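Supplementary Data S3. Sequence and structure tokens for construct A.
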Amino acid sequence: MLTLAHISDTHIGGSEHSVRRTEAVVRHLAELPEPIDAVVATGDIADHGAADEYETVRELLARLPYPTIVCPGNHDSRAEFRKVLLGANDGPGDGGDAPVNQVLHLPEATIALCDSTIPGRPEGYLDDATLTWLDGVLESADRPVFVGMHHQPVPLGIPYVDEIMLREPERLAQVLLRRSRTVAALLIGHAHTAASANFAGLPVRVAAGVSSTLMLPAENTQRMAIDYDQPPGLSFHLFEPDGGWLVTHSRVVAA
């Protein structure tokens, strides 16, 4: 059975508060009594996209004794993300500002993280190059694939975050429907709340926010109500490739 830890929206650099909360989540994962297979982080890793923020992120993630894969979110800078976290000075053809698409191969599954960011914009979009890349990963896969990105492709019932969700999600749906037998689930960040949904006939799992929690309309009348006092959250995705079942458990960590 495959076990993935899923974290998102650490927003390192926004405050010492976010660093402490991320440290608590990293410590929780590092001290698990039994090993897990990998840690997936779905964006907004830094708050301003600055190099020193990514240096802090790199130091924190280095404490994890598991394979770790990270994608950018709308608060991230592709160039600094690539340079500091991935150790690469340039992206293909445009000085480091190309989409940061990555793949991690595990014995029981593959994780393909797409860069859904639009530099300078809060909403998301998957460009042609990214969709072509994803289609190629899915076509060549010899094991189930978890597809991840920052922006959610479906509304989550929170007006603020739904206004800045993935644009033209039908373009992604076309790829997923063509390769649906290969895809295990979609792993998403951005919303700062644990949620589950369906898209293109596939399960969608949204990670809680490490830095804060975005409240539902029923919980607060403000358009964008953010709770910084609720504890940081994470998810564990348990997947059995042979049986094809997926179960997600949500956790909060004392910070």
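Construct B, processed identically:
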Amino acid sequence: MPSGALRAVGLAGALALATCAAPETAPPPAAPVALAARLPEEAAGFRRGATLPLPQRLDGQEVAYATRGRIAAGAILELDRLPEGPVPTGAASPAAAAALAGLLEEALRAPGHRKQRETAQFVLPDAADPGLACAETTGSYGRERVQGLLCAGGIGGGLLRLRVTMPQRDPAPADPRAFATAILAALRGS
């Protein structure tokens, strides 16, 4: 083989090795509208409702869910991107912690006849795979006893905020933890 051909083969081999060793770049953040399109029509007994833009949040989308029946549970999901840049996936980022703190502050300072208190904090789906930082609340809306679930986490480079509110009953009209876990699985594509 001529020396020029050997050099070309050697260069091609070196380039192939360099390509294999090149660091992977993170995929670009998913647009909230693309994330909203991944959401299922039904999740843990909740049926999907309207999807609306969130003009106060960067490319934000709000998706409503509710259970059927006389004693209903409602859920609101907010998907958006932060102006500071991509949010790391999962529950551990400062952005997820700040979003959960904001959801809690909003719930605990609700106006008028609404009173809430935080009863627990945890991660979902579990400590080994923490996708969402969550807090449970209990309280009342007037004379109606209510319970809630608030969660936040990074997904697709953006931020998911999830709120579930329902009457406090035994048995409960829905399983908010199962709903949050199903939504996270759908957004992750698993």
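Strands lie at 42-43, 46-54, 58-66, 74-81, 114-124, 132-141, 144-155, 158-167. The helical segments are 3-21, 32-38, 94-108, 176-188.
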